[in-house]
Amino acid sequence: MLGIFKAIFYFTPLNWRVFWRMHWAGKVVSLIDCLLLLIVVFFISVEINFLGLYGYLPDVNASENQIAITSEMFSADGQLIAKYYAENRMPVSYKEIAPSAIDCLIATEDVRFYQHNGIDFTAFFSAIWANVSGEKRGGSTITQQLVKNIFKTRQNSEGLLSYIDALRTPNHKIKEWLMAVRIEKRYTKEQILTMYLNTVDFGNKAFGIRTAAQTYFNALPTQLQVTESALLIGLLKGTSLYDPLRHERKALDRRNVVLKQLYKYNKLAKRDYEIAIKRPIGLRTSARESVGNVAPYFRNAAAKFLEDWCKKNKYNLYTDGLKIYTTLDTRIQAHAEAAVMEHMQSMQEKFHLHWQYAYQDMFAGFRRQDSLKDKYPHDWFLVEMLQKEEKYRAFIQQNKSRPFQLLDSLSNMRRKMRIFTWKGQRDSLISPIDSVKHHLQILQTGLMTINPYNGQVKAWVGGIDFDFFAFDHIQSKRQPGSTFKPIVYAEAFEQGRKPCDTELDAPVVIQYTENGEAKTWSPSNSNFEYAGMVTLRKAMGTSKNTVTARLTEKITPKAVLKRAKLMGITTEMKAVPSIGLGSNLVSLYEMVGAYASIQNRGEWIEPHFITHIKDRNGKVIYQAKPQKRPAMSKRTAFYMTDMLRAGIQEQGGTSQALWEYPELFEKENEIGGKTGTSSGYADGWYIGVTRDLVTGIWMGADDYRIHYHSPEAGEASQTALPLYGKYMVRLYNDTDLGIERGKYPDMSPELRDSLIARRDYGCLTPYVAKKRKDDVPIDEDR
Description:
5-stranded antiparallel beta sheet; 20 strands; 12% strand; alpha+beta; 44% helix; Penicillin binding protein transpeptidase fold; 5-stranded mixed beta sheet; disordered N terminus
């Protein structure tokens, strides 16, 4: 009976309805459970990148290191001289950001920032509804935007779903949600805001709030006023649309929208709001942070070193925020650049006159002869120079079988080109041939100054105009002429010779064998005058070629080559009899280092321009450890220091033109140096040595075939030496530099006594008049 009763009860209409409701309620619950399970499974599959569908999620612990930060280079006197960046950005801490910027950001971009954990579903669904209604609105939180900025999730998704248009955006969004939640767990709200403001693009190549504050208002982030903060935050909606440099009215309107948001959320009082919206935009861009054009050749050389170092040590120069500290002194550099500009402009005027007078038909144009290349190599040489440029290469190759028509075509092919002049760059309608003629006749120079006691480069001028002539003449290889002679004398002294020893100055014929072939060489002095027996000091001071040639033969060219390498010459050279007269190619960089080893008591220190590098966290990751080695004995170094003075002191010395700068010799200042002129006057060199600095100068045209044609104009004493004089006068007159006139550092008492015992003071500068209290005993042999 009971069973029947229950059956009747359950099958009444009322209970059937109840049963029906319970049945479907269970199904709904089951559906919700299934949906939740599917969502969980989906998120897990995204998390593990199931079957490679979604792309891997980045490591949230590396968030801060993902921010691309500008690397900065500083001079020895603390000046910012270069920036290297993919995005111009310098991060700041939370305390370095004006509170008004934080308030503007939250009120405009994410008003519930402090309430959510990375995802604001209210804003998300509101944005969906707004978009359905035709209003474009984003629903991303500040944290989600940070994820996009740091990890580039919308550009770097590698999952298979990214290839399906309908699924690409949902896939990105889900990954951003997951990463946002991770970011919120890993960092505090303050850290998230700081990272965000350090990463965002404010337009005009200003990434991060520090660069933006400097770019638009010449201010630090802590100095931003509320209106300035509002303008910067307003830019985030569209850096092009609201660019205040181009669209001031739109930028002003957008700024006021941000101010209204501040007022709406009680971050700005009504009265302050009403005042703020009436203020002008107030840009202060005239003093925008800039490293200018300081030492462009130096910065370029340093960049090449840094790129190689970063590659070897797995750093990125343009994104890792390195702090690079250099040896350059911008004050010395400024004097070097000013001296170069003054001297080279006057030299160029003289060179043009010399060139036009002596060889006015050098580039006279096409002569209709059968063999253009053989009879008129200078004409064909112009074509060969043009062939180096890609835009002419194909045309020249196609027409090389018709040389006459080719040269005519290139001479008549007028184009608008920008050319260099000493009155400034200017546009000109000119043919390619005339353009080559013009630029080949422009004189170039290189100037390098180092501290001989530590090898640090203090000034580096690689040319006359980096924008037009980027080729660095400090590192280029040219014939050093007589500036190479001190290396010969240093080796002779190491083999037992002394400055007061004599050698014959007379015509000489040297026989030698090269590659199994017997040869003869007959060098002559530049003025074709000979003095008979002369001391070695006199011979070097007056730059006697015959004496150097005889000396080289006696001590052997191989020994000279070996000494050159010890003194820092790394370029491959031939050990031929003419090595002592500078017949091989070397760089100014090498020669300055070699002379520095003389002043540094015989020890060579590798010239270098980077002292140390720090990473973005301030840790030293590179410390300069320049190579060092004995280049000669201390006794030889002393001899050579005095030998370099001989060019000024000996009658007929090649450095005597320095007496035209009497300021250089005040306070008993001691200067030594050596001129050098290559064959045909193509290269003019001067290397000068003072108590504090060694400076090398090279001067000539880029192509050795363009040169002076008389000693009166082309000797180094007329070209490179005067630039040294002008430069050093500038340095001495700038008392803030601390570069003082004075005598060379004194020798040790032991070395002095040894020289007296050897009776080797007969032809040397008097140097033993008074002993100094600070004399330090040293081993005279080393």
